[in-house]
Amino acid sequence: MKKRSIALSAAIGCVAMIVPGCQISGKSGAEAEVKQPNIVIIYADDLGYGDVSAYGVGELNTPNMDRIAHEGIRFENGYATSATCTPSRFSLLTGQYPWRNDRAQVLPGDAPLLIDPAQPTLPKMLQAAGYETAVVGKWHLGLGAGNTNWNQQVRPNANDVGFDYTYIMAATNDRVPNVFVENGNVVGLESNDPLEVSYRKNFEGEPTGKANPELLKMMYSHGHDMSINNGISRIGYQRGGKSAQWIDENMADTFLVRAQQFVKIKRDKPFFLFYTLHQPHVPRVPHSRFAGTTGMGPRGDVIAEADWCIGEFLKTLEEEGVLENTLIIFSSDNGPVLDDGYVDDAAEKVGDHTPGGMLRGGKYSLYDAGTRIPLMVMWKGKIKPAVSKAIVSQVDLFASLAQLAGQPLPENDSKNLVDAFLGKSQNGRESVVIEGLGHRTAFRKGDWVLIPPYKGSKMVPWGVDTETGFGYDVQLYNIKEDVGQANDLASERPEKVDELMQEYQAILNKQ
Fold first, then answer.
1. Residue 126: closest CA among 162, 91, 90, 97
2. Phi and psi of 355, rounded to 5°?
3. How far is CA 364 from each of CA 221, 285, 437, 453, 460, rounded to the nearest angstrom?
4. Handedness of CA 21, 24, 27, 30 (dihedral sign)
5. Which residues of 342-483 form beta strands (DSSP E)?
6. Domain endpoint, select from 411, 427, 443
7. Rounded distance, CA 225 to CA 222, Å?
8. Residue 113 in contact with residue 144, Cβ under 8 Å?
9. Which of 398, 427, 456 is the last residue in one of the domains?
10. Is 404 helix (H, G, I), strand (E, B) or coil?
11. Whose CA is closest to 230, among 289, 283, 167, 269?
């Protein structure tokens, strides 16, 4: 197992200098009595089942992620609802399967807000229970109402779906605009240099990765050849707003400090923090403290960086005296991918490491590695360390946390599995619907996985070396006996195919 050796003497004191003055406000009264557990969801981006060393199937070392697993419940059958980012995030926050919303697919950087402000959400539910709520990190659920003017407060925004405080990237690492948005306002924007964004055509005179590769410090492999920021070309075009554009190497520190500040200010009353890491999504640009530390190239290095961030955040919870009253959920929005648009040696340097572990597929795929992801729950002193085989989905966090917070259970796809999440039961879902590219779905019930027939490429069409799971024939796998989904049993077990197909269709047709 590869271990990184890094001297990290410059912790939060130096990191904080990267971040401008914080706009979080709150009460300081130390005498306030916490009556409900704080809730923190730490959400990685494109992190696979095998990328967390606690699962025992990869070569990376992730001691801080492992701490959550070893001091809490590690789920072996934890699922994101989708093998791509936007749909999974939508489901986690709304308790609704993404395929029920046509727009819940990977969004462009200028997309309007995906979640209707009138829709019930997890943060709104927790607000009603008396929680202070925040999201810090990647968002990718749209902002504004269309034709967004980034030079004034963007509305509606993440605050309008239940978050009291928001500090997010406008879209994704690899999409313009490359700016942070705090409570609807672009951070650091100067009025004499307005920000313009287009996903249709470039602005006159602005360099692009395609036309000006000599300006790049990281070459694109497919797509990602448009506007350049920080020596990296992205998807989409932008002009102006130079003072507001981020430096990728500092992004992890920027988000970490904001998450820590929220905890320090809100520690005296119940809080909910959705801390959404950007790693290991492309472009993978670690801080110099982590560059070259894993031997696996930038992908391995940014996972080490993310692990360190988690460790520093846990340390803050301990220092503020709230760790033992904080429920921590760690997971990923979908499975892993190596080459996802940039030449960063992810495939060349992966070595013996298996990002998806023993699972087949990866990001974008209907096979299990697309949606079966690391999922751990820690509550120091309340949850006994264990490994759970219960089938659970991120869509279930809404109902489960509603039960924990004493709120009415939602009427959506979310199931109350609070006992499974707290380690009081090994009973999870009987079945779950998972999603690959383009709202194509598959169905798991017990040990069986049914993948319906779909037209389309068997490999991700834009050059990613991952199987989609699409085929002209129905597929059936017993993943207890065949975890790698190598043996299609559909022709041998037609009665099982018919049984599962009926149950699956009934769920799809449920209003």
1. 162
2. -55, -35
3. 18, 22, 5, 16, 7
4. negative
5. 375-378, 386-393, 431-435, 441-445, 448-451, 475-478
6. 427
7. 8
8. yes
9. 427
10. helix
11. 283
Task: Using the predicted structure, report yes or no on whether residue 332 has a pLDDT greater than 60.
Answer: yes
Q: Output the domain CATH number for residue 452.
A: 3.30.1120.10
- CA–CA distance, 157 with 109 (Å, rounded to integer): 14
Whether residues 141 and 275 fall in one domain: yes
Structure tokens at 383: 């949850």
The average pLDDT across 144-150 equals 94
Domain assignment of residue 486, yes or no: yes
Residue type, 449: V
Note the pTM of the prediction, 2 decimals: 0.94
Tokens 């290095």 correspond to: 301
Asked if residue 166 is part of any domain, the answer here is yes
**20 has a pLDDT exceeding 70:** no
**Residue 474 and residue 405 in one domain:** no
Residue with tokens 């990191």: 15
What's the pLDDT at 23? 56
Residues 45 and 153 in one domain: yes
DSSP for residue 82: B
Looking at the fold, whether 485 and 417 belong to one and the same domain comes out as no
Strand pairing of 165-169 and 271-276?
Answer: unpaired
Please state the rounded mean pLDDT for residues 388-402.
Answer: 98
Going through 45-131 in order, the beta strands assigned E by DSSP cover 73-79
Do 412 and 371 belong to one domain?
yes
Q: How far apart are CA 465 and CA 462, in angstroms?
A: 9
User: Could you tell me if residue 409 is inside a domain?
Assistant: yes
Structure tokens that stand for 86 in this block: 């936007």
Sort strands 165-169 and 132-137 into parallel, antiparallel or unpaired: parallel
Which three-class secondary structure state does DSSP give residue 496? helix
Q: Please report the pLDDT score of residue 123 as a whole number.
A: 98
Local structure of 75: helix, strand or coil: strand
Cα–Cα distance between 265 and 28 in angstroms, integer?
7
> Angle at the Cα of 16 (from 294 to 267), degrees rounded to 5?
100
Kindly provide the residue ranges of all beta strands, DSSP E only, lying in 36-176, ordered along the sequence.
38-44, 73-79, 132-137, 165-169
DSSP bridge pairs for 40: 273, 328
Q: What number of other Cβ atoms are within 10 A of residue 210's Cβ? A: 12
Q: Residue 134 sits in a domain of what CATH number?
A: 3.40.720.10
**Range list of β-strands (E), 333-440:** 375-378, 386-393, 431-435
Do 135 and 155 fall into the same domain? yes
* Interaxial angle between packed helices 63-70 and 297-319, expressed in degrees from 0 to 180 and rounded to the nearest 10: 50
- Token pair belonging to 473: 């024939």
Any domain includes 297:
yes
Q: To which residue do tokens 């025992």 refer?
A: 56
Do 158 and 40 reside in the same domain of the chain?
yes
Give residue 456's domain range: 434-509
